[in-house]
Amino acid sequence: MRVFDEARDIINGAGLLRRGGVTMTNWQTAEDLKPATFLDVRHPRTLLGIDGHGYMWLAAIDGRQPDHSIGMTFAELIGLCNRLDLRDAINLDGGGSTTLVVKGAIMNKPSDAAGPRPVSDAILVKSR
Known about the structure:
Elements: E1 16-19, E2 22-23, H1 27-30, H2 35-39, E3 45-51, E4 56-61, H3 74-83, E5 86-92, E6 101-102, E7 105-106
Antiparallel strand pairs: 1-2, 1-5, 3-4, 3-5, 6-7
């Protein structure tokens, strides 16, 4: 039986950052992420994590806008995970797709010159 068959919810990203409090370091081999263009270069990033108290964190890190924000490398993103005490964390789609919307208002400054762009998926957080 495939692991995904048993999953209630699935989320995809490029770069599992932490799992069970352990920082992941095998991105290059396991996920074929390129240091020169993806890991070691600052980009806008979208982060999802669960902290030591079980709270979920969603973070949109702006970038590619020297007058506003330069983004983060993977090492800097791990540093953020440490500061937030994230036990589990994943880097989601980033770059020009990094957009955080709360109650219909865009909370960050997307990096595309044209502003926010359409994307194929999103994470919705709703009250119970």
